[in-house]
Amino acid sequence: MIHRTVIPVLWLWLACVIIGAALAGSAKADPAEDFATAYAADVCIVLDDHPTIPGLTGVLQAVQETGGLTARQAGQAVALSVINVCPRHIPLLRRYVAMYAPRASGALA
Hints:
Elements: H1 2-24, H2 31-49, H3 53-67, H4 71-85, H5 90-100
Helix pairs in contact: 2-3, 2-4, 3-4
Keywords: Signal
Signal peptide: 1-29
Protein name: DUF732 domain-containing protein
C-alpha cells in the first residue's frame, strides 16, 4: 500500500524539480542593473544639482570608482538610473553621447 502511494508522489516531486530547474534558467548578476537599482535616486539627485556635461562626467566617474564598474557598465548604470527614475535628464544624456560617442569614419561612413 505504501509503495503504491510513495512512488507516484516521488514521480510528481521529480517532475516538479525538473520543471522548476527548466523554468529557473540561469540568473546572472548584472553590475550595472544592480548599481542602478541601489543608487538611481542618488544619481538623479546629483544630476539635479549639476545638470551639465561636466556634472554628468563627474557622476560617471564616481559611479565607475565607487561601484567598481567598467566605464561601459557605469554608463549603463547611469542611463538606467535616468531612464527609470529621472527621465528629465535624458536630454543631458543625449547631449553627452552626441559630444563623446565615437563616430564612424572611413569609406563606409
